[in-house]
């Protein structure tokens, strides 16, 4: 059986003669609930003396990754994302040869008019 260091089996690392209250575990805290669009609740704890302006209105929910707000009835909306387009979808959107020639002719005509070489 290999052991290392001076740790005694069954003791916490970092535990010493000071109690947990000296480490801040019993400091006064305020629980703030956040809800995401799927109804998941997340509770965050903040120090009791922190000003209300410093408590964030929205966070990212660890349950779903969606934004979560403090208003249970009106949580932030789910972000709308565009679906991934395949190469074939882009090929279908390409213009026809006739449209491309018309656009090129119009562009060249406008360029010549700006230069005064009509």
Automatic annotation (TrEMBL):
Family matches, as Pfam families: RbpA (PF13397)
InterPro entries, per the entry: RbpA_sf (IPR038638), RNApol-bd_RbpA (IPR025182)
Quaternary structure and interacting proteins, as annotated: Forms a complex with the RNAP catalytic core and with free principal sigma factors.
Family indicated by similarity: Belongs to the RNA polymerase-binding protein RbpA family.
Domain of life (superkingdom): Bacteria
Role this protein plays: Binds to RNA polymerase (RNAP), stimulating transcription from principal, but not alternative sigma factor promoters.
Species in which this protein is naturally found: Microbacterium ureisolvens
Gene3D superfamilies per the UniProt record, alphabetical: RNA polymerase-binding protein A
Keywords annotated in UniProt: Transcription, Transcription regulation
Protein name: RNA polymerase-binding protein RbpA
HAMAP family documented for this protein: RbpA (MF_01483)
Signal peptide coordinates: none
Region annotated Disordered, chain positions: 1-20, 54-82
């Amino acid at each position: 059986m290999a052991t290392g260091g001076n740790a005694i089996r069954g003791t916490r690392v970092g535990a010493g003669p000071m109690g947990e209250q000296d480490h801040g575990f019993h400091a006064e805290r305020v629980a703030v609930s956040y809800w995401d669009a799927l109804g998941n609740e997340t509770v965050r704890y903040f120090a009791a003396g922190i000003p209300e302006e410093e408590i964030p209105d929205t966070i990212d929910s660890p349950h779903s990754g969606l934004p979560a707000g403090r208003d249970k009835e009106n949580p932030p909306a789910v972000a709308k994302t565009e679906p991934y387009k395949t190469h074939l979808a882009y090929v279908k959107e390409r213009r026809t040869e006739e449209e491309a020639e018309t656009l090129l002719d119009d562009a060249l005509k406008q360029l010549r008019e700006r230069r005064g070489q009509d």
